[in-house]
From TrEMBL:
Residues 99-170 form the F-box/LRR-repeat protein 15-like leucin rich repeat domain. Coiled coil: none annotated. InterPro entries: FBXL15_LRR, Leu-rich_rpt, Leu-rich_rpt_Cys-con_subtyp, LRR_dom_sf. PANTHER family: F-BOX_LRR-REPEAT PROTEIN 3 (PTHR13318:SF105), PARTNER OF PAIRED, ISOFORM B-RELATED (PTHR13318). GO terms for biological process: SCF-dependent proteasomal ubiquitin-dependent protein catabolic process. GO terms for cellular component: SCF ubiquitin ligase complex. This is F-box/LRR-repeat protein 15-like leucin rich repeat domain-containing protein. Pfam families: DUF7885, LRR_6. It comes from the Eukaryota.
């Protein structure tokens, strides 16, 4: 019988079908090593790529990976001295990767508005853009992206300190499907800007305005009502203008809220937190409220007993919290799902309270008790506390903290 060559038998479409069945990236790379034909098909079908390359190399990549959907050119913080991607690179990207939907340029210090204008003009299919800590960017370039990439669903601008409310107006006007927006450290963002944003973008489920010091109750309340059906994650770290009005608005409208960061919002008190616990009892998973100095046992007890799906809680530096916060756990009919608890600098909590917690919580993975004078490793050993086998207890600060509450 004459031998049969697979390349003479199978069409390109049939080979693509075979390639699509390979789930492992390594297997896909091996597919391309068979011959030049298979390499060409594998290259054209590749969807994701992470690289560091200048304009010449990017042109070659664009020719080879013509159907690329995700491109990651971000830099690590440790390489922050290096400019990374530049405006000339973005011209090549905008012209060569027309199918691109996801672009990550985080920490690329060489990018300016000129490069962003190229992206807006060339990548009409773009759905996700991360330009966090690209510190030269202003409203002009980012508004051009909003106007040109109107299918945008995710935008991260953390650390872009020149961004103002004008960008939020452009997003509201052009990007009605926006779902995720990161504005951490964008200090010029105000309540008026947030109101403009949600007048057109009502599907936002993730909003990070950590350290946006001009955001207060008015803006948060407007966002809560406009995005009530979608909002799941809201980050308000160190937004000192945020108080009880914001939390009561979230409790009233955002019944599906899963993550709330309000650390450093010192005017928040028990009244609003109790309302939140009642309204979001089924949805709330992560709550950070360190340095909320007006919080007492009554509201935290409500959170622990009513929010049955709670997985992470930070009440660090809430100095009035005592062991009594754990008293209500004994009446609970089911085990807690809590995985992360941070109570650093809570001087009135003792090993007795931790014992009450452990009686109802076998899922604990991380416990932060730094600067709690009545909770020491030796003290826990003396009373015979039994932590779950996989639980890390941070007594002195030597352990890496989980990032779930950042």
């Amino acid at each position: 019988m004459a031998s049969i060559c697979i390349n003479d038998t199978l069409t390109d479409d049939e080979l693509r079908s075979i390639l699509s069945k390979l789930e492992n990236d390594k297997d896909k790379e091996i597919f391309g090593l068979v011959c030049k034909r298979w390499l060409g098909l594998q290259s054209k079908e590749r969807k994701r790529l992470a690289a560091r390359a200048g304009p010449h190399m990017l042109q070659k990549m664009a020719a080879r990976f013509s159907r690329l959907i995700e491109l990651d050119l971000s830099q690590s913080v440790s390489r922050s001295f290096y400019p990374g991607v530049t405006d000339s690179d973005l011209v090549v990207i905008a012209d060569g990767f027309r199918c691109l939907k996801v672009l990550n340029l985080q920490n690329c210090k060489g990018i300016t508005d000129k490069g962003m204008t190229s992206i807006g003009g060339g990548l009409s299919s773009l759905q996700s853009l991360n330009v966090s800590y690209c510190r030269k960017l202003t409203d002009k370039g980012l508004s051009a992206v909003a106007e040109g990439s109107q299918g945008l669903r995710s935008l991260h601008l953390d650390g872009c300190k020149f961004v103002t409310d004008e960008v939020l107006k452009a997003l509201s006007k052009n990007c009605p499907n926006l779902e995720e927006l990161g504005l951490q450290g964008c200090i010029s963002i105000t309540d008026c800007g947030l109101a403009d944003l949600v007048s057109g973008c009502r599907q936002i489920h993730f909003l990070d305005v950590n350290k946006c010091s001009n955001v207060g109750d008015s803006g948060v309340s407007t966002v809560s009502e406009a995005c009530s059906s979608f909002m799941k994650t809201l980050k308000l770290l160190d937004c000192f203008r945020v108080g009880n009005k914001s939390i009561l608005s979230l409790a009233r409208f955002c019944k599906n809220l899963e993550t709330l960061i309000i650390g450093g919002c010192r005017d928040i008190s028990d009244e609003s937190i109790k309302s939140l616990a009642s309204s979001c009892r089924s949805s709330l998973k992560n709550l950070r409220m360190d340095w909320c100095l007006n919080i007492s046992n009554s509201s935290i007890s409500c959170i622990l007993t009513e929010c049955r799906n709670l997985e992470a809680l930070d009440i660090g530096c809430c100095e009035e919290i005592t062991d009594a916060v754990f008293h209500g756990l004994g009446a609970m009919g089911t085990e807690m799902r809590l995985k992360v608890l941070k109570i650093s600098n809570c001087p009135k909590i003792t090993v007795t309270g931790i014992g009450m917690l452990l009686d109802k919580c076998n899922s604990l993975e991380y416990l932060d008790v730094r600067s709690c004078p009545h909770i020491t490793k030796s003290g826990c050993d003396v009373v015979g506390l039994q932590f779950p086998d996989f639980c890390k207890v941070n007594f002195t600060g030597s352990l890496n903290e989980p990032d779930v509450l950042l």
